[in-house]
């Protein structure tokens, strides 16, 4: 009997095409908004987790100041102390690379008027392992012609950004003076200048983006930091690669315990930690988006309700006839509920298809034209859960919106309904 | 036992703030196989009586029983089931569902009784052939003439093989020639199929096919005549 009710309801939808189309349109727009917003959120999450996975992989974790991840420290990165040897000694650790950062007095060349260009700048020391084993952290840096990246054997060398090189009046091959603690100072040769023409690529490097004023940062070999500031336990970040066969979360936990036992205030962060932070962040974004989408769904639902009230009123006589020939109240209720559910489902079907199509096109557009960092992609995610949930939800939306009108139709006394003109 | 037995029926209903006494103490028996015409001027209670005879409504007072079932004692759903099985309606304005084909309109009463699809379709086709619409089964009501629509309605009334055919002014919206053929059809079917038929009508030609004519005035039976 249910199948027959579906057929009857379907016939009613088709019989009043224009009105059905308008009601479907209302639902469609709402569902489309939901699908676009959620799919876009999923794509955004895909982009972020993709980038995290690229940097971390399954065999890498970071050690940072414990306040950075807990959110107590709001100013970006923060220096912390730890014993690198302890970290290297943790079971399962293969390679440890560290980044140190300090502020130094820096003196460059002279400008056109003969004034020496100087100032306090952040100086970042990148350990050789970072450059060899963790290329993803520095990214594919693009150097101006003749420039090169720091290697493990460099000592008195520095890499600058184009803006900073201009400000210091330094050209490739020039020397700059970097003064550290006490009277420690070195004269470093500028071996590479990061091209300013491709800002985005230069920004991609993880190490470069760590500093709050990254365009000011002077990069020097790790060993050079030891010459300037001998203490050597003020890290911005350390990156750890584990040996094959170990679980990254286990090793990270052991490292954190070992370091904390020595009094270091650090946290070991794995990709799953970052992913869970991203998930949490995305869940807030999704709640906000769901609220927006909910409003459009509500409007669609009211549209369906309006259509169904008109439909019930218009078919009052049909209701009377159906009841006269043996339809019970629940039969009439079911027919009208299915009808409004079908309107919702139809809106859901088209809305989901359009929403996915628009999201796919937008993802393609972003990937093609937005100039994402090399290798990064804004993935199109067609979540089966989302599709099923929206289709079912759209049917339910229609049915719920039709409930009130349908009940009114179903409860109409047969004699009154038959008399209705 | 009469098929329909009405004793001391009173039916009042409220129309705005006034109470209308549509039927005021009416007794009527109808036997199986009878063709009864109920006549009377407007406001005599014909329509109200039809609603009561067709188990569409229950009386305010008195007892109405159909095949021994006292309508008063039935729940709304039982009333619907009884009506669906025992009564077939033919209306003045045909009252077909516009969005459905002739065949589907005929199938409608069987759908609500849960008749299987194939059996339903077969019976609908047979009934439409019987009323002379074998070629027009897939047409919708707006593609049919008035006489054809009433034939569809008659086929629908017979769908669940009811005891009673209840026709309310079946020729009221038809020209006299078409009306005459519809009356012929109704008479033939009720005799062939052994149905009890109740005709509510103004039309003396319609009343002429009846075994008995019951005249109403002011909610009471004022005359009963047996046709020869």
Structural features, described:
The complex is a heterodimer of chains A (421) and B (228). With 421 residues, chain A is an alpha+beta fold. Chain A has two domains: 2-53 and 276-419, no CATH class; 81-264, Barwin-like endoglucanases (Beta Barrel), CATH 2.40.40.20. Helix content of chain A is 57%, strand content 17%. Chain A contains 16 helices and nine strands. In chain A, strand 2 and strand 3 (116-126) form a beta hairpin. In chain A, helix 14 (329-369) packs antiparallel against helix 15 (384-410). Chain A starts with a helix and ends with a helix. The relative contact order of chain A is 0.19. Residues 197-213 of chain A have low confidence and may be disordered. The longest helix of chain B has 17 residues, at 176-192. The two termini of chain B are 24 Å apart. The mean pLDDT of chain B is 91. In chain B, helix 3 (102-112) packs across helix 4 (117-130), helix 3 packs parallel to helix 5 and helix 5 packs parallel to helix 6. By secondary structure, chain B is of the alpha/beta class. Chain B has helices at 46-53, 76-86, 102-112, 117-130, 146-157, 176-192, 204-207, and strands spanning 4-15, 18-30, 35-39, 61-66, 69-70, 87-90, 164-168, 196-201, 212-217, 220-226. In chain B, helix 6 (176-192) links the parallel strand 7 (164-168) and strand 8. The radius of gyration of chain B is 17 Å and the shape is globular. The chains are: A alpha+beta (421), B alpha/beta (228). Chain A binds chain B through residues 1, 4, 8, 11-12, 14-15, 317-318, 320-329, 331, 414-415, 418, and chain B through 51, 54, 56-57, 76-77, 80-81, 83-85, 88-89, 91, 95-100, 104, 108-109, 111-114, 117, 156, 159-160.
């Amino acid at each position: 009997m249910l199948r027959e009710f579906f057929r009857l309801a379907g016939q009613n939808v088709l019989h009043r095409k224009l009105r059905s189309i308008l009601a479907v349109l209302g639902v469609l727009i709402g569902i489309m908004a939901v699908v676009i917003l959620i799919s876009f959120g999923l794509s955004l999450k895909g982009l972020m987790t993709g980038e995290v996975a690229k940097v971390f992989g399954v065999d890498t974790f970071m050690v940072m100041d414990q306040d950075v991840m807990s959110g107590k420290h709001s100013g970006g990165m923060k220096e912390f102390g730890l014993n690198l040897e302890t970290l290297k000694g943790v079971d399962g650790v293969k390679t440890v690379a560290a980044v140190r950062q300090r502020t130094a007095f820096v003196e460059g060349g002279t400008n056109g008027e003969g004034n020496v260009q100087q100032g306090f700048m952040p100086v970042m020391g990148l350990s050789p392992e970072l450059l060899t084993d963790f290329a993803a952290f520095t990214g594919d840096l693009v150097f101006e012609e003749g420039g090169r990246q720091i290697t493990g054997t460099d000592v008195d060398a520095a890499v600058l950004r184009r803006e900073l090189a201009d400000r210091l009046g330094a050209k490739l091959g020039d020397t700059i003076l970097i003064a550290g603690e006490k009277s420690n100072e070195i004269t470093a040769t500028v071996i590479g200048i990061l091209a300013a023409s491709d800002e985005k690529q230069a920004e991609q490097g993880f190490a470069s983006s760590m500093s709050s004023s990254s365009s000011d940062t002077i990069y020097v070999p790790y060993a050079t930091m030891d010459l300037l500031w001998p203490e050597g336990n003020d890290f911005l970040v350390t990156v750890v690669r584990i040996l094959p066969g170990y679980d990254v979360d286990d090793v990270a936990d052991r490292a954190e315990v070992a370091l904390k036992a020595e009094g270091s205030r650090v946290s070991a962060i794995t990709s799953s930690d970052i992913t869970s932070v991203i998930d949490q962040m995305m869940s807030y974004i999704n709640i906000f988006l769901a609220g927006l989408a909910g409003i459009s769904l509500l409007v669609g639902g009211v549209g369906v309700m309006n259509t169904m009230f008109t439909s019930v009123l218009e078919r009052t006589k049909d209701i009377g006839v159906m009841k006269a020939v043996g339809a019970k109240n629940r039969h009439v209720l079911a027919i009208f509920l299915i009808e409004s559910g079908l309107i919702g489902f139809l809106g859901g079907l088209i809305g989901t298809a359009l929403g996915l199509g628009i999201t796919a096109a937008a993802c393609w557009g972003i990937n093609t034209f937005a100039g994402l960092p090399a290798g990064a992609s804004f993935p199109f995610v067609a979540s089966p859960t989302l599709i099923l949930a929206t289709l079912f939800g759209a049917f339910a939306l229609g049915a719920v919106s039709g409930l009130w009108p349908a009940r009114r139709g179903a409860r109409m006394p047969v004699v009154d309904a038959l008399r209705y003109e | 036992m009469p098929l329909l037995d009405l004793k001391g029926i009173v039916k009042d209903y409220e129309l705005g703030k006034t109470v209308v006494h549509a039927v005021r103490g009416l007794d009527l028996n109808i036997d199986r196989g009878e063709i009864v015409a109920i006549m009377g001027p407007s406001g005599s209670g014909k329509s109200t009586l039809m609603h009561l005879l067709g188990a569409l409504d229950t009386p305010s007072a008195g007892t109405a029983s159909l095949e021994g079932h006292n309508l008063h004692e039935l729940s709304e759903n039982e009333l619907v089931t009884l009506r669906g099985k025992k009564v077939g309606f033919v209306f003045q304005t045909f009252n077909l569902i516009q969005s459905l084909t002739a065949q589907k309109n005929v199938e409608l009463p069987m759908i609500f009784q849960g008749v299987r699809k194939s059996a339903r379709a077969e019976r609908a086709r047979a009934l439409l052939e019987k009323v002379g619409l074998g070629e027009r089964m897939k047409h919708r009501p707006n593609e049919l003439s008035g006489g054809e629509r009433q034939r569809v309605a008659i086929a629908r009334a017979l769908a669940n093989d009811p005891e009673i055919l209840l026709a309310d002014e079946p020729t009221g919206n038809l020209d006299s020639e078409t009306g005459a053929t519809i009356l012929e059809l109704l008479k033939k079917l009720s005799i062939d199929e052994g149905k009890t038929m109740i005709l509510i009508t103004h039309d003396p030609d319609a009343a002429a096919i009846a075994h008995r004519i019951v005249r109403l005035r002011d909610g009471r039976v004022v005359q009963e005549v047996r046709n020869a």
